[in-house]
Amino acid sequence: MVVSVLMVVVMAAEEGAGLLLLLTLLGREEGKRKEEWKEGKRRTKARIYKGQINSLLPSRPPSFPPSLPQVILSLQLSFAVFPLIIFTGDISIMGPAFVNSPFTSACAWISAVLIAILNIWLLVMTAAQGGVPS
Question: Average pLDDT, whole number, for the chain?
Answer without folding.
Answer: 75
